[in-house]
Amino acid sequence: HEKNVSHHRCFDNFVSWLYSNDWYACRHVVILPNRRQALVEFESLEEARHCVTSTSSDPVYVGGQPAYCNYSTSQKIARPSGSDDANVNNILLFTILNPLYPITTDVVYTICSPCGTVLRIVIFKKNGVQSLITFDSVPSAQRAKTTLNGADIYSGCCTLKIEYAKSTRLNVYRNDSETWDFTIQGPVGWGSHGTCERLLKIGYIVCFGSLIVGP
Question: Which InterPro entries match (predicted)?
Answer without folding.
Answer: Nucleotide-bd_a/b_plait_sf, PTBP1-like_RRM2, RBD_domain_sf
